[in-house]
Amino acid sequence: MRLILVGPPGAGKGTQAVHLAEHYKIPHISTGDIFRANLQNGTALGLKAKAFMDKGELVPDSLTNEMVKDRLAKDDAKAGFLLDGFPRNVSQAEVLNAMLAESGVLLDAALELSLDNEEIVKRLSIRGRDDDKEEIIRRRLEVYSEQTAPIISFYRDANLLVTIAATGEISDITSAAIAALSKKLS
Fold it and tell me: Which tens digits make up the pLDDT trace of 103-116?
Protein backbone atom coordinates (compact mmCIF):
# COMPACT_ATOMS: atom_id res chain seq x y z
CA MET A 1 0.00 0.00 0.00
CA ARG A 2 1.38 3.38 -1.05
CA LEU A 3 -0.72 6.00 0.65
CA ILE A 4 -0.65 9.70 1.37
CA LEU A 5 -2.66 11.43 4.07
CA VAL A 6 -4.11 14.90 3.47
CA GLY A 7 -6.31 17.17 5.52
CA PRO A 8 -6.28 20.39 7.47
CA PRO A 9 -4.28 20.96 10.65
CA GLY A 10 -6.08 19.29 13.55
CA ALA A 11 -7.85 16.66 11.44
CA GLY A 12 -5.87 13.91 13.17
CA LYS A 13 -3.45 12.99 10.39
CA GLY A 14 -0.62 12.12 12.78
CA THR A 15 -2.88 9.97 14.95
CA GLN A 16 -4.46 8.16 11.99
CA ALA A 17 -1.08 7.70 10.31
CA VAL A 18 0.16 5.67 13.27
CA HIS A 19 -2.93 3.40 13.28
CA LEU A 20 -3.06 2.96 9.50
CA ALA A 21 0.68 2.27 9.17
CA GLU A 22 0.33 -0.38 11.86
CA HIS A 23 -2.74 -1.91 10.17
CA TYR A 24 -1.11 -2.07 6.72
CA LYS A 25 2.35 -2.93 8.15
CA ILE A 26 4.01 -0.07 6.26
CA PRO A 27 6.30 2.68 7.55
CA HIS A 28 4.72 5.98 8.61
CA ILE A 29 6.91 8.59 6.96
CA SER A 30 6.45 12.18 8.08
CA THR A 31 8.37 15.08 6.61
CA GLY A 32 9.05 16.30 10.15
CA ASP A 33 10.78 13.00 10.98
CA ILE A 34 12.73 13.08 7.70
CA PHE A 35 13.94 16.63 8.44
CA ARG A 36 14.91 15.73 12.02
CA ALA A 37 16.79 12.59 10.91
CA ASN A 38 18.74 14.51 8.25
CA LEU A 39 19.60 17.28 10.73
CA GLN A 40 20.58 14.81 13.47
CA ASN A 41 22.76 12.77 11.12
CA GLY A 42 24.38 15.88 9.67
CA THR A 43 23.66 14.79 6.09
CA ALA A 44 24.39 17.15 3.19
CA LEU A 45 20.62 17.58 2.73
CA GLY A 46 20.18 18.21 6.45
CA LEU A 47 22.86 20.90 6.47
CA LYS A 48 21.28 22.63 3.47
CA ALA A 49 17.86 22.54 5.17
CA LYS A 50 19.35 23.85 8.43
CA ALA A 51 20.66 26.95 6.63
CA PHE A 52 17.08 27.86 5.64
CA MET A 53 15.55 26.90 8.99
CA ASP A 54 18.12 28.94 10.94
CA LYS A 55 16.98 32.02 9.00
CA GLY A 56 13.34 31.20 9.74
CA GLU A 57 12.69 30.44 6.07
CA LEU A 58 10.73 27.57 4.57
CA VAL A 59 12.88 24.76 3.23
CA PRO A 60 12.49 24.90 -0.59
CA ASP A 61 10.45 22.20 -2.34
CA SER A 62 13.52 20.98 -4.24
CA LEU A 63 15.28 20.11 -0.97
CA THR A 64 12.17 18.57 0.63
CA ASN A 65 11.58 16.51 -2.54
CA GLU A 66 15.17 15.25 -2.42
CA MET A 67 14.84 14.21 1.25
CA VAL A 68 11.57 12.37 0.54
CA LYS A 69 13.08 10.62 -2.49
CA ASP A 70 16.03 9.53 -0.34
CA ARG A 71 13.68 8.19 2.37
CA LEU A 72 11.41 6.33 -0.07
CA ALA A 73 14.48 4.56 -1.50
CA LYS A 74 15.11 2.82 1.85
CA ASP A 75 14.32 -0.91 2.06
CA ASP A 76 11.42 -0.59 4.52
CA ALA A 77 9.49 1.60 2.04
CA LYS A 78 9.91 -0.70 -0.96
CA ALA A 79 6.68 -2.63 -0.30
CA GLY A 80 4.69 0.46 0.65
CA PHE A 81 4.51 3.52 2.85
CA LEU A 82 2.23 6.10 4.38
CA LEU A 83 3.32 9.69 3.71
CA ASP A 84 2.19 12.29 6.22
CA GLY A 85 2.97 15.96 5.51
CA PHE A 86 4.02 15.41 1.91
CA PRO A 87 3.06 16.44 -0.68
CA ARG A 88 1.98 19.89 0.54
CA ASN A 89 1.29 21.37 -2.89
CA VAL A 90 0.56 20.32 -6.48
CA SER A 91 4.18 20.76 -7.52
CA GLN A 92 5.31 18.29 -4.84
CA ALA A 93 2.48 15.91 -5.82
CA GLU A 94 3.73 15.93 -9.42
CA VAL A 95 7.29 15.29 -8.24
CA LEU A 96 6.09 12.39 -6.06
CA ASN A 97 4.31 10.83 -9.07
CA ALA A 98 7.50 11.13 -11.12
CA MET A 99 9.61 9.63 -8.29
CA LEU A 100 7.29 6.65 -7.98
CA ALA A 101 7.03 6.16 -11.76
CA GLU A 102 10.85 6.11 -11.89
CA SER A 103 10.71 3.17 -9.47
CA GLY A 104 7.97 1.48 -11.50
CA VAL A 105 5.27 1.94 -8.86
CA LEU A 106 2.20 4.12 -8.43
CA LEU A 107 0.40 5.71 -5.52
CA ASP A 108 -2.57 3.59 -4.40
CA ALA A 109 -4.62 6.32 -2.75
CA ALA A 110 -4.72 9.76 -1.17
CA LEU A 111 -6.79 9.64 2.01
CA GLU A 112 -8.40 12.96 2.92
CA LEU A 113 -9.44 13.48 6.52
CA SER A 114 -12.25 16.02 6.25
CA LEU A 115 -13.26 18.29 9.12
CA ASP A 116 -14.99 21.68 9.17
CA ASN A 117 -13.07 24.75 10.32
CA GLU A 118 -15.09 25.38 13.49
CA GLU A 119 -14.48 21.82 14.67
CA ILE A 120 -10.77 22.24 13.92
CA VAL A 121 -10.56 25.47 15.94
CA LYS A 122 -12.39 23.78 18.83
CA ARG A 123 -10.21 20.66 18.67
CA LEU A 124 -6.90 22.53 18.44
CA SER A 125 -7.82 25.08 21.12
CA ILE A 126 -8.27 22.21 23.59
CA ARG A 127 -4.81 20.85 22.76
CA GLY A 128 -3.15 23.83 24.41
CA ARG A 129 0.06 24.09 22.36
CA ASP A 130 1.66 27.53 21.85
CA ASP A 131 0.76 27.53 18.15
CA ASP A 132 -2.85 26.60 18.96
CA LYS A 133 -4.15 30.11 19.74
CA GLU A 134 -7.32 30.83 17.74
CA GLU A 135 -5.82 33.51 15.47
CA ILE A 136 -2.83 31.28 14.69
CA ILE A 137 -5.11 28.31 14.01
CA ARG A 138 -7.20 30.41 11.62
CA ARG A 139 -4.04 31.58 9.82
CA ARG A 140 -2.84 27.97 9.49
CA LEU A 141 -6.23 27.09 8.00
CA GLU A 142 -5.87 29.94 5.48
CA VAL A 143 -2.41 28.70 4.48
CA TYR A 144 -3.78 25.16 4.17
CA SER A 145 -6.66 26.38 2.02
CA GLU A 146 -4.34 28.35 -0.29
CA GLN A 147 -1.43 25.94 -0.58
CA THR A 148 -2.42 22.40 0.34
CA ALA A 149 -6.13 22.11 -0.47
CA PRO A 150 -5.45 22.22 -4.26
CA ILE A 151 -3.82 18.79 -4.01
CA ILE A 152 -7.24 17.40 -3.09
CA SER A 153 -8.47 18.37 -6.58
CA PHE A 154 -5.23 17.00 -8.05
CA TYR A 155 -5.81 13.57 -6.48
CA ARG A 156 -9.55 13.65 -7.19
CA ASP A 157 -8.76 14.26 -10.88
CA ALA A 158 -6.29 11.36 -10.78
CA ASN A 159 -9.05 9.16 -9.30
CA LEU A 160 -6.95 8.47 -6.20
CA LEU A 161 -8.85 10.50 -3.59
CA VAL A 162 -10.69 8.76 -0.76
CA THR A 163 -12.45 11.16 1.64
CA ILE A 164 -13.72 10.32 5.11
CA ALA A 165 -15.14 12.47 7.90
CA ALA A 166 -12.57 12.92 10.67
CA THR A 167 -15.20 13.15 13.42
CA GLY A 168 -15.99 10.74 16.22
CA GLU A 169 -13.78 8.35 18.14
CA ILE A 170 -10.25 7.70 16.90
CA SER A 171 -10.95 3.98 16.42
CA ASP A 172 -14.12 4.75 14.42
CA ILE A 173 -12.19 7.09 12.12
CA THR A 174 -9.50 4.42 11.63
CA SER A 175 -12.17 1.81 10.82
CA ALA A 176 -13.87 4.19 8.37
CA ALA A 177 -10.51 4.86 6.69
CA ILE A 178 -9.70 1.15 6.33
CA ALA A 179 -13.20 0.41 4.97
CA ALA A 180 -13.05 3.30 2.48
CA LEU A 181 -9.55 2.32 1.30
CA SER A 182 -10.58 -1.34 0.93
CA LYS A 183 -13.57 -0.31 -1.17
CA LYS A 184 -11.38 1.97 -3.32
CA LEU A 185 -8.74 -0.69 -3.93
CA SER A 186 -11.09 -3.62 -4.57
Answer: 999 999 999 999 98
